[in-house]
Design a protein that fits this description.
Layout (H helix, E strand, L loop, with lengths): L2 H34 L11 H4 L15 H15 L3 E5 L2 E5 L4 E2 L1
Antiparallel strand pairs: 1-2, 2-3
Length: 103
């Protein structure tokens, strides 16, 4: 087994364990909601996420890289590997070569 295969396998197992934990806590939250529902005032309802909030309830926005950050990354790669690098970003072609870089 290569290190990469081992790493991917461990990552997969961690993801399965995380999903199992989330599923278990979601079941507990649902059971809590059903248990408390009869004791609320007439006509009042409660939703599971109002009973308790978990970290996974809110999606964290993905970090968006700026053009300047990507250009700097391309320049580092081109300089390190002494090759010409080209990438499309937002319809614009960013370029960097091993000797000096241009946009």
């Amino acid at each position: 087994m290569t290190p990469r295969t081992l790493f991917k396998t461990m990552e997969y197992v961690r993801e399965i364990q995380k999903n199992e934990t989330i599923r278990t806590w979601e079941q507990i939250r649902w059971l809590g909601m059903i248990t408390i529902q009869p004791h609320l005032k007439k006509g009042t309802t409660i939703k599971p996420h109002e009973l308790i909030r978990f970290d996974w309830d809110t999606e964290k926005p993905a970090r968006v890289q700026k053009k300047e950050e990507i250009q700097a990354m391309l320049e580092r790669i081109a300089k390190r590997d002494k090759i010409d690098v080209q990438m499309t970003f937002g319809g614009e072609i960013l370029k960097a070569n091993g000797n000096n870089s241009t946009t």
